[in-house]
Specification:
EC 6.1.1.21; histidine-tRNA ligase activity; alpha+beta; 3 domains; Histidine--tRNA ligase; ligase; 16 helices; ATP binding
Length: 432
């Protein structure tokens, strides 16, 4: 036998029994985003590598270690996108979308060659939001309120919000100097990754999860102490807005981003139910990125949420387990007419999820497949039913007798959760 080919490590198939949870999340997210006036943008999976080097930075782990980059046959240096913001900014500049404020959202796969573990994969999926052209704390508040509404739509109540301000570039530069000086005084206590980041990306040291580093991090200078009046007012206004909206949050002065284009607001939604990979949504303001990628200076704010991590948190009952009905056909003539009847039923009941049996088989084997499908009822079409314009309706999820009903009465019957026949259906059954 030929050797089996398996999926690449860290890249997973979404199987038919799993996809309803993905669809549930995507549908709820789209509905919430449309209510807030956000329009969808779809960007390519492959971009020129320079886009991510200029946006993320050449001395970051993503670019140095994790990005899938390659030279194509034409000699161009390309990369699978490791995140969505840079692509959205590139598209907004390229297509001249920044003449007025834009609220956009995106979804799709991202790629990073990390060590696969729970909640961290080499192909992972994000849903993200980007707002261009608005610089006030009110839009920062809006994107956070939007995420809260999404958690409500998904039935998630086990998330907490952490918040910080990175200030503006000059404030962060002064903080960086103070932080480097502090870390140099504690250099012997730094783990290997923090020692490498000391001069290239010192704010990322505050992200370290190494247990021996926590005391050093806790005693480090706070960026909030370096904020000027304008940045402090922006942050205080945002916090007051969250209080007024009833959103609980915790100010975390160690919450940072390692990229220079971030400024002022940064936030994360975190759960304790996923172990070490507990951040399910991260966002912030990045007023410097548009200019960094060749556009005119444009304020911007956004977030990205991890689809796989959120799916793990969804309740098992969040999706419908199967079709509404499974059509069983008994006898050669009934089997020949089954697909045509199924089409007529779908025409008359636009919302009906109907699975029609194909491939023949005995009545018993068809009923077994109907039960395994997860359908609420089996619809039984035999030679007698075909002649009389009726159909049998047999509940599959609870005990109950099979009822004979007129096909015209099926919509009203299937709309009832208990599938008990209506008086009209009983009357039709009695007459026949």
């Amino acid at each position: 036998m030929a050797k089996k080919i398996q999926a690449i490590r860290g890249m997973h198939d979404v199987l038919p029994q799993q996809s309803p949870r993905w669809q549930f999340l995507e549908d709820r997210a789209r509905a919430v985003l449309e209510r807030y006036g956000y329009a969808e943008m779809r960007t390519p999976l492959v971009e020129v590598t320079e886009l991510f080097k200029r946006s993320i930075g050449e001395v970051t782990d993503i670019v140095e270690k994790e990005m899938y980059s390659f030279e194509d046959r034409g000699g161009d240096n390309l990369a699978l996108r490791p995140e969505g913001t840079a692509s959205c900014v590139r598209a907004a500049i390229e297509h001249a979308l920044l003449d007025h404020p834009q609220r956009i959202w995106y979804r799709g796969p991202m790629f990073r060659r990390e060590r696969p573990q729970r909640g961290r994969y080499r192909q992972f999926h994000q849903i993200g939001v980007e707002v261009f052209g608005l610089d006030g704390p009110d839009v920062d508040l809006e994107v956070i309120l939007l995420t809260r509404r999404l958690w409500q739509a998904l039935g998630l109540d086990n998330l907490r919000l952490e918040l910080n301000s990175l200030g503006d570039a000059d404030e962060r530069a002064r903080y960086r100097e103070a932080l480097v000086a502090y870390l140099l005084a504690h250099q012997d206590a730094l783990d290997s990754d923090s020692a490498k980041r000391l001069h290239s990306n010192p704010l990322r040291v505050l992200d370290s999860k190494h247990p021996d580093m926590q005391a050093v991090i806790a005693a480090a200078p706070s960026l909030l102490d370096f904020l000027g009046e304008t940045s402090r007012r922006h942050f205080d206004t945002l916090c007051a807005g969250l209080d007024a909206a009833g959103v609980a949050f915790q100010v975390n002065p160690r919450l940072v981003r390692g990229l220079d284009y971030y400024n002022r607001t940064v936030f994360e939604w975190i759960t304790e139910d996923l172990g070490a990979q507990g951040t399910v949504c991260a966002g912030g303001r990045y007023d410097g990125l548009v200019a960094q990628l060749g556009g005119r200076p444009t304020p911007a704010v956004g977030f990205a949420l991890g689809v796989e991590r959120l799916i793990e948190l969804l309740d098992a009952d969040c999706v419908t387990p199967g079709p509404d009905a499974y059509l069983v056909a008994v006898g050669e003539q009934a089997q020949n007419q089954a697909l045509l009847l199924a089409e007529r039923l779908r025409d008359s009941m636009p919302g009906l999820r109907l699975l029609c049996h194909c491939g023949g088989g005995s009545f018993k084997s068809q009923f077994k497949k109907a039960d395994r499908s997860g359908a609420r009822v089996a619809l039984v079409l035999g030679e007698d039913e075909l002649q009389q314009g009726t159909i049998g309706v047999k509940p599959l999820r609870h005990d109950g007798p099979q009822q004979q009903v007129a096909i015209a009465d099926l919509p009203a019957l299937l709309a009832r959760p208990d599938t008990e026949p209506t008086p009209a259906a009983q009357h039709a059954s009695t007459d026949q």
